[in-house]
Amino acid sequence: MLATKPMFIALDFPSGEEALSFLDQLAIEEVAVKVGMELFYKEGPSIIEQLKQRNYKIFLDLKLHDIPNTVERAMKNLASLGVDVVNVHAAGGKRMIEAAQKGLQEGAINGQKPLLLAVTQLTSTDDEMLSEQLLIQEEMEQVVKHYAYNAKQAGADGVVCSVWESRLVHDICGTDFYTVTPGIRMENQHNQDQVRVATPTVANEQGVSAIVVGRGITKAEDPVRAYHQFEGAWNNGNETTIS
């Protein structure tokens, strides 16, 4: 299980050397980190091993989406890395999610299975993209609720969604079903390529289980100060402006 209300720092760096250098600069113990495609595809399992040696909690964010058999075998391998959280795309359907959980159980180390999250809709997706590009005619909230319900029925431990759908997910899936939300920004920060964004204070108010913060910390002039500001706003609703 995850610690209460974790805040994952997205290590979106082109190399392991840069990611570890950043963490050395941050110099904060018990930080939870997210390793995505960019870093993992560059460094492979070695970056996970190095992060584990430093006792970081790790969310391995690879968003698997393939036929059930392939996902099951891939998840068995990912579970053997000893990470804490992994994910798939909910659009892969119930059979794929069930296969993912089976693979994680088979590959778990000492019975410690990673939590499985299902990505509902990326925070870069809006209603216009849903209808015009993906040919999904339902509104975002309905799509996320339906995907979350399917994920829970298939045995997932939670979902990745935006802050704005977290309460809806908990209403239909229960408060013990994790909602992990990227797209976290302070009021004065640019949205960049994400559209369904919110502040850490709003995430707290919406009952989110865990947040993911990337460039707001990693690209800040003073990452240590930025980290503590995000953490304070997330845990206490005490939001201050990052300049």
Automatic annotation (TrEMBL):
Pfam families: OMPdecase. The keyword Lyase applies. Residues 6-230 form the Orotidine 5'-phosphate decarboxylase domain. Its EC number is 4.1.1.23. GO terms for cellular component: cytosol. Homodimer. Belongs to the OMP decarboxylase family. Type 1 subfamily. This is Orotidine 5'-phosphate decarboxylase. It comes from Pontibacillus litoralis JSM 072002.
